[in-house]
Specification:
This protein has about 140 residues and is mainly α. The longest helix is centred in the N-terminal third of the chain and has 18 residues.
Amino acid sequence: MRRISTLVIVTGASAMLAACGSGGGLLGRERPDEFAVQRQAPLVVPPDFSLEPPAPGAPRPAEGTAAEQALEALFGGPAPRSEVETSALDRAGSAEPGIRTKVGDPATNTVAKGSVTRDIIAAPEGDGQFAQAVIPAG
């Protein structure tokens, strides 16, 4: 008897769940068509459509790479650099072209900065009112 009642409950629950499905099931609910809600604007021919073909050998109107065009569209072109930024970039110089492959090379020598540098980087932010320098013995 218990098994039959469990089977009836499971069957009834699955039937109710099937009624909530996408087909409407037993309820047959009508849903609005999301594409019918928006009005479509009529197509209009532009008033001045006198385009001329480009002259042979003339420069293309959209010069630059896709990245440059994207930066121009998003930010309005390169921003002028401040004197401090220009000075810092001049002092830093330029990197070697293959520097990224050399960094990942196992034969590249690296310098361990130690725990002091790690502690400085991991220090919590604050105004430094209670800051202390702790030099480990050793």
